[in-house]
Structure formats: structure tokens, C-alpha cells
Amino acid sequence: xxxxxxxxxxxxxxxxxxxxxxxxxxxxxxxxxxLQDILSSRLVRSVLVVALGPEPRLPPALSGESRRVLWVGxxxxxxxxxxxxxxxxxxxxxxxxxxxxxxxxxxxxxxxxNELGEVPYGTASPGWRIVxxxxxxxxxxxxxxxxxxxxxxxxxxxxxxxxxxxxxxLPVLSGGTDxxxxxxxxxxxxxxxxxxYRQARDRLDRxxxxxxxxxxxxxxxxRAAVADDVIAAGRAxxxxxxxxxxLFADVDHSDEDAADVLAANGVKFAAPAGMGHAEIVAELRAxxxxxxxxxKSLARLVARLRLLADQSAPIGSAAFVPGCARRCPDELxxxxxxxxxxxxxxxxxxxxxxxxxxxxxxxxxxxxxRTALDELRxxxxxxxxxxxxxxxxxxxxxxxxxxxxxxxxxxCAQVSAxxxxxxxxxxxxxxxxxxxxxxxxxxxxxxxxxxxxxITGDLLDAVTGWLDPGWPALEHGDYRDVQTGLExxxxxxxxxxxxxxxxxxxxxxxxxxxxxxxxxxLVDAVWRQSQQVVRALQAPPGGQMLQLCGDRDLSLLxxxxxxxxxxxxxxxxxxxxxxVVWTRSGQYAGTLRLVPLRPGTVEENWSGDGA
Length: 611
Prior knowledge:
Mean pLDDT is 85; it is low at 606-611. The chain contains 22 helices and 13 strands. Strands 1, 2, 3, 5, 6, 7, 8, 9, 10, 11 and 12 form an eleven-stranded mixed β-sheet that branches. A two-stranded parallel sheet has the order 4-13. Among the domains are: 3-134 and 532-604, no CATH class; 178-270 and 313-390. By secondary structure, the protein is of the alpha/beta class. The chain is rod-shaped.
């Protein structure tokens, strides 16, 4: 970077490898000591002095081969052809700020210092033909407003299934796919719940066989034995139903002794592999970063995360207690506890007896009882899988998704508010200086939509970086730490991006950028199609340019010139002249002319601090 020290305003408080000193010519002598301190510092590699005002008088500190001075006789300048000597009035506005901004580009600074080493006495008058790449303030203000509206948009509903094709945990935990078959095998063989189930199943099977064995000549005691078997099956079914309901009521995903209770009842509790905190967060991160890379709406992403949080949150096994009664209602148990009697009459003919037995079978409700038993076991296994085995994983998924959604919502609010402030600030800025060609600025006015997409893409790339420190915290369940320092990180990045847009432009990708974001198309449409950029880069050093001096100062200049050609590196391509300095800045492209002063023009002032 280039450190700027304005001796008209401040003391020398900081230094760096490149130092640009700005001062008035009549104060140069008084700045002898400050200049000496700068030039003698080991921190400083090269010094360039911009002296503004008439009659350049240089102190002893600027004598010798190390002298590198740009003399600006009049910052408003004059249009001058160094080859022919023809001159005309300039734009009438000061170009001091543009010159300082231009020299603050390290690549241009270094090249100017090198060129001044070839100029007699190391002193020259600067002039230029430059094309401005600054975005028109009104266009930029509108772009900021549009992007702010995108970030501040209302949260939209998004019913899309959350989980990439490579995800395995999130689809299961959110209910997007069926539970794995091995996870549904939740009863320990020989355990209490398995024994109760098998007991009820065996009793129902026994009652069914007894009924099947009932013959045409069966006696009343035989039919009474069938009824006894049905009653026993009903009792076993009721015992299993009550045990399942009690287990649902007693065990919850938050109970500390849940594992012991489930183990005592013969229910598996171990979480399956691949569904730990690290795996869940890794899938969640991959999905969020994929959505950001695809430039998905943040409002929709927030909605998806909140939906994931709702879908994955366990509701507790107690909520399934009423489901036991729905699958095995009391009316069914009453029918089993007090079975109907065998239909009387018409036993003298076999066909009527068979009908009577079939009617009795239906009244005994053994089929519905078997269905209820299987549905109770299925319910138990699903609850054991989703609410117990996966309970902690689902809690973590829900909390993590909701935490990331909250962080994104905070980011949206902060970005939107900042962009709104930027828009108001830009709306009050002046347009490009008349000292510069404006073709690129004019072209950018017609590219507001592309500009908006580039800025949006850059900020979505920034979101990825803002979330980075929070993912490890999520893995450890430290949900509050995810938003710790988030506001500061966002603010710092936005300040850097504001500086980037002001000094480097949209065609240069910011440091946090990860994708093209459509900027290459914008560069091709604006910079590379600009004929003014081509002419400015190919301008002959002796041709007409804006020379930063007054008409009376022209007599002090030689009719020879050195040229420093520069352009944003994003514009680099075929057809450019050789020797162009490619800069990271996107504000300017063109030719900076350095015109040496006639011998004897520079007066070395030995008064003041140098006396």
C-alpha cells in the first residue's frame, strides 16, 4: 500500500515502504526536517513528493539522486500539446484528488518513481489522458438500494427437501426419507417388550387354531375353551398395549435415565453411525454453502432452515400415547374380554354350521386384534427409532438449523441497513470529474442490472466467510457462540468492500470473493469495448493532454515527455500496447505524462529548517 502524508494537515505519524508526501511549494522549506526523517527511515523504500503551487523551491532533503518530485503548478491544469506547443483552457476544476488517488495505486506509484529516475533532476510536471472507471453515483446508489431490498426481503416459504444428493443424515432426521430398516428393528430379542409382544401373538395364534379346530360335532366345553383362549389373548394384547403406552409416557428424549429405562424394557437406544454432531453439521454446512454458491435467495434459505428445524425437532414419546388407543381401542379389548357366544340353532345341517362358525370368528375379532398388535409393535419401533435412538441427533439438527437461520437473519438485517446508508451517501456524491473521459462511466449507467448481480454475488460470497467460525461451535453444541463476533465480522468486511468498490471497482474480485459473480461479462461489455480506453492507453506522450500547470508554467517545461501507461488488470487482453502497468484498481485507465523541467527551473531553497 501507499502511505499518504499531507504536510499541510498533519504530522508524520506513520510510515511504510511507499510514502507519498503532499505539500505546497511554499511549505517545502519548512518541511525539511520532516522530509529528512522520512527519507532516513529504514521503514521507507521509496518516497514521492507532490508539490503544489508556483515556483518549485526544494529543500536540501530533496537534493541528489534520490529526488522524486511531481510539481503541480496549477491543479486545474491546461490542455497542452507538447509536440506542437498548442494550449487551451482546461476544465477549470482541481484534479489534485484524482492525482493523489492515482498515485496511491502501488503499481502506478512504483512506475512513476522508476520513470522519475530517468528524468533530469528527478522532477517533472504531470499530465494525463485518463478514462474514469468510476460508477455513476446515482447508478451505484440504486444498485445498493436494490441489493438492500434483496437482503431485507420477507422470509419466504420454501418446501424444498433439505439435503444434497450426498446427504444421508439430514433427510432421515427431517423425515424426508424413510427410517433405515435396521434402525426399525428396535426390540431386543428376549427383552421385556419382545416377550410381551410374542406372548400376545402366541395367544392370538392359539385362539385362532382353537377356532379352526372346532368341528361340526364339537361340544359346548370345546366352544367354551375357544372363548377362554380369546379372553387370554385379549389380556395379553391389553398388557402389551399398556406397556407400550407406559413406556411412551415414562421415557422422553430429555430424560437422563432414558437409556436405563429402555434397556430394562428391552429397547435398543444406540444412535446409528453417521448421525453424530459432526456429520450433521457437515451436511448442513454443505447444503448452506451450496445454496450460497448457487446465488439462492437468503430469505428462502432462512425459510428452509426454519422448516428443517421444525421437521427435525422431536416431539417426545409421550405425544404418541394416544396413538396406542387409536390402534388398539378399548372397544376391541372389550370384545376380546367378553367374547360373543357361538350362534345357536340350525346345527343339523353342515352348511349352516360352517356359516355359524364364520360368523362367530368375525364376532370374536381375532383378525382386528392381530392387526392392532402388529400396529402397536410398528408404532413402538418407529418411536424408538425417531424419538429415542435419533432423539439427540434430531435435537441437535433442529437447534443447529435454527441457529444458522438466526445468524443469516442477523446478517440480512445488518447488510441491508449498511447498504441503505451507502445508497444515501452515494446519492449526494458528484459525478465523474470533467478532467477525465467518461465513456466507461456512461457505459456503466446502462449496466445497473449486471452491477446489482455482481454486488449481490460478492456479498453472498462474504456470507460464507462470516459463517465459517460458527461451524466448529455448532459441532460442539455451542449454539450461542455461533453469533459471537458476527456483527463485528460483518461490519469489518463491509467496510473493506466499500473501500474496494471505491478504489478498485467492480471488475476486480474482492479478497473474500469465491466466484466470478458475473463480473467478467461486465468487464467485457464495459471496459474492453470502450474505444476511449484504447485511445487513452495508446495516446502519444507528446500529444494533447491535461497538463497540471498554468499557462505561464509552460515556459518552464521541456518539450519532451515520459509516459506511464496503466489500466485495471481485469482489462488485460489482446491489443493492449506494451509496457502497460496493470493495476488492481478499477478506477482509471490511460497514460500519465511526465514532462521534465528546464535546467535551472528548480530552485533549491536553503532557508527555513534547512538553514
